[in-house]
Design a protein that fits this description.
It is built from three helices and two strands; from the N terminus they run E-E-H-H-H.
Length: 102
């Protein structure tokens, strides 16, 4: 049976498998070295999901959020909630809010 595993080849030539390798004894292996940097090893499903969402531009890290960002006040939240009861799509409410500021 053939199996492909991902590994990192370090500059000193050391090879580090990124998943467990089970073998009943010595086996012959072929190694293909790709001309690209390794992807970071993620510890959990949540980290993998975060990485996918960030790559797609759907999630911002806390470091990516502007420092001058101001949270909505309770009054602003109430106004938005009242506007949304009219069945207006959220994207339209956001666009209208931006137009009012400019």
């Amino acid at each position: 049976m053939h199996r492909t595993i991902e590994a990192i080849v370090h500059p000193d030539g050391r090879i580090e498998a990124l998943e467990p390798i089970e073998s009943r004894g010595p086996r012959r292996a072929l190694i293909t070295i790709l001309d690209e940097a390794p992807q970071p090893v993620l510890e959990s499903d949540a980290e993998r999901l975060d990485a996918v969402l960030c790559a797609a531009g759907l999630l911002d890290r806390a470091s990516d959020i502007p420092e001058d960002l101001v949270m909505l006040s309770d009054t602003e939240r109430v106004v938005l909630a009242q506007r949304n009861t009219r069945g207006i799509p959220l994207s339209q409410i956001i666009s209208e809010g931006r137009e009012e500021r400019f």
